[in-house]
Design goal:
The protein is α+β, with helices and mostly antiparallel strands. It has one domain. It is built from 5 helices and 10 strands, in the order βααβββααβαβββββ. The chain is globular, with a radius of gyration of 16 Å.
Length: 205
């Protein structure tokens, strides 16, 4: 966590490594972010996008939502983390479970899965359209539903571009595009590193 006690703007939704790695060749380009007005409008801007709402994670009954903190994140926890990020209490709860947001010597970390992205958080996700967040990229997932365990291999910076969490599963979307994110404190601790995630410059005497 940042030394000043501020939150880490981590979105508790995971994306698989293959989809992330093929984003530049297979992604769509349907949205544009205006940095001056800080708004998102329809139309391409040369930056590919991906649907973060999972159409299949490999874990029955699990839709890619992660417990970052409590082993049984409530909807209230998810809504708070979506809007405000992960706080020190979340980090302390992870530590109590023997987990961490730091990669081990093998370049991985594990996080428990939750049962999914529901319409209950649509207003919260919609409220951060145009904002930058950090998401975890996972390589494998094992176990069903709330017992799913994700093996995370990197953190990446993204911007939320479009949200639709009602209707059929095939029509739902949480669209993001790569975006540089500057955070206080370090996340990376080995392995594949992080994409689009940077630490601010520090003055050293």
């Amino acid at each position: 966590m940042p030394a000043d006690g501020s939150n880490l703007n981590i979105l508790p939704f995971a994306l698989d490594e293959t989809t992330w790695n093929t984003l530049t060749t297979a992604g769509a380009d349907s949205w544009t972010y205006n940095k001056d007005s800080k708004t998102v409008t329809a139309g391409g801007d040369g930056i590919k996008e991906v649907n973060l709402f999972p159409q299949g994670t490999g874990s029955p009954g699990n839709r890619g939502t992660l417990d970052i903190g409590s082993a049984n994140n409530s909807t209230a926890d998810l809504k708070r983390q979506i809007v405000s990020g992960v706080n020190q209490s979340d980090f302390d709860l992870l530590t109590a479970q023997g987990r961490s947001l730091t990669f081990n010597n093998a370049g991985t970390l594990t996080l428990n899965g939750d049962t999914g992205i529901s319409a209950a958080v649509k207003d919260d996700v919609s409220s951060i359209i145009g904002q930058a967040r950090i998401i975890p990229i996972f390589r494998t997932v094992s176990g069903p539903g709330n017992n799913a365990v994700y093996t995370v291999v990197k953190w990446v910076g993204v911007r939320v571009m479009y949200v639709k969490l009602t209707g059929s599963s095939s029509s739902k979307a949480l669209t993001v595009q790569p975006c540089n994110v500057v955070v206080k404190g370090g996340i990376y601790g080995g392995g594949n590193g992080s994409d689009y995630v940077y630490s601010p410059v520090w003055l050293v005497r």
